[in-house]
Amino acid sequence: MIRKFVLLAALGTMLTLPATGPAQPAAAALLDMPFDRIEEQSRGSQVRWYMFGGWAHVNDWVDSYVAGEMKKRWGIDLVRVPMDAGVFVNKLLNEKAAGKRTGTIDLLWINGENFKNARKAGLLFGPFAAKLPNVQRYVDPESVAFDFGYPVDGYEAPYGRAQFVFETDTARIDTPPQTTATLKAWIRANPGRFTYPQPPDFTGSAFIRQVLYAVTGGHEQYLNGWDPDLFARKAPLLWNWLNEIEPFLWQKGRTYPKDSAVLDTLFSRGEVAFGMSYHPPHAQNKIFEGSYPDTVRTFVLKDGSIYNTHFTAIPFNSPNKAGAMVLANFLISVDAQLSKYNPVNWGDFPALDPDRLTPEQRNQFQSVDLGPATLGSDQLDPVAVPEIPSAYLEALEQGWKTHVLDN
Amino acid sequence: MSWTTNLLARLSPLLLPYLVLFCGGVFLTVCQSLGVLTPLPYEGGLLDAYARILGEPSFFSSFGFSLWVAAASAAIAVIAGTLLAYRVWQLPRRLAGAALIYKIPLILPHIAVAFVVLVFWSRSGILASVCHALGLIQSMQAFPNVLYSGWGLGMILAYSLKGAPFAMLLVLALLARFDIRQIQTAAMLGASGTRIFFTIVLPRLAPAVHTAFIILFLYSFGAFDIPYILSESRPGMLSIHVYNLYFKHDLVRRPEAMAILTLMFAFAVLFIVVYSKAVRRLENGVRKL
Q: Tell me, what's the ipTM?
């Protein structure tokens, strides 16, 4: 019996022994190597990019445009692997625990909590971002210093920008609410026609953060890091707001859509009057896809709409870090950002600093037709507010469960 | 080499994967629930995660709700499966082949069955359309709100659909060896069909019925796929709660996810022990034929 336990314990330890020893010498050398030598080294290799795979149009863009250009310019074979960020972070955690020095992932599409988790657990290679020529040339370092309040420190390279928007069908709703207060009045006057995805869903969680800003006097107070007293004082205002609309939500608020895809379906069937997305071109993409009517338009609330930057990062055990850096550099190039900005491809907003572009390049971005459903930066920028530090995010998601769902 | 060592050595191709994968997994889960061997250094005490979970009233409502869904769906599946198996077994030989269609849900994945339920039973689904077309209901919205009733009816339906053929399979295997002369004798002595089923057939089928119940009950208690499609927000199923804690929250909360898994595992073991004890006690009171 005892022997069995010893055996078990030994096996357990074997499974979970942390990977020790120095990092691969080649990886460290990579950070001192000039970028053209990195490009040289990656020529003809394979890069495996793990990314969220839930958007068909984004997958198409990666498989056709990005893969095509990578092949043409560097002879690199790009393999896109669809996987949710939470899942690949766990995969890397397990690989790290098992001491697997050579993994299967070269590049990640990541941000927010997942970045913080990965960084804290030592899952990322870097700092590499400042080495990328396109980051040096086109990115304002200030704008990417923090990711949900967590210091980036060069462990991820910017890839795109997103901002929270609402969607409505102008054939059904003439004038959508302009502020958080009028939204509440609308919900109470139109029972059953509004809902939001259940946090910790990404979109639903962003919705409650935005309401928090609106009902507690703005975002500035939260940006200096986690303050438990402030949270304890302010959060109840949010819970009240959400509980006051709950009986007037879809299904009388007894249940919430599991994720934003379910909300999209409810919205497209007309069961609810408003959709929401953290991606400004989402409605336009859905119109192109044929799942939303042409009359759908996007709007933002005057009291603030959260924006964030999304990034790419390289795992500690990536077998092809050179190739991953070349891909990350290409993704933040003017060409790739421009192609990505086109709503026919995706419509994701560029993470470049317009002031660092040549007038000609700026013109190219300005002449992209975003489509009638997407708001331009003239409407988005004035209401843009930054993301909250991730400690608040976690507390809000937990608090939502305790004070709204289980209440 | 002693006899046991020899036996262990010969069993090792089976034992090793079992020890490494299953026991290793359970071991790691328990460790992480205590805050040991977690991906991030854990600052709380050994039982902090358990204290936090057990301090949340919603944990108990989720636990109770998961039990309800599991018990209701396993009971429906076993009862329906047993009765259907008995009927199929009684069919004339030429029809028995056609009855094989009962195996179709067995090869469908759980997630597919969940979608079948979703497509048929939602208010904009096939059944609502048919009822509306037949004039049984005034509008599609008048169709009963099966999927959002707060009782987990959608999940129970899906699990029952998936579980009934499984129970049939186990019961039919026993029936194949059943001595039909016992029934004929009982019938000659004037026993009714119901009496025959309950006094003669059912006690023979009991082992299969109990096994099917335990397997189906524990599966639906802990499984994730069907709740992922069909569950409601409140009360939530435990498996969804664990999934959210594991994948969608801060790594600091990993011990909580693991503590729930450990409690679910402990419950499963306890359930099997208590259930088999209870069954044994019941059967001791039954006259053996």
A: 0.82
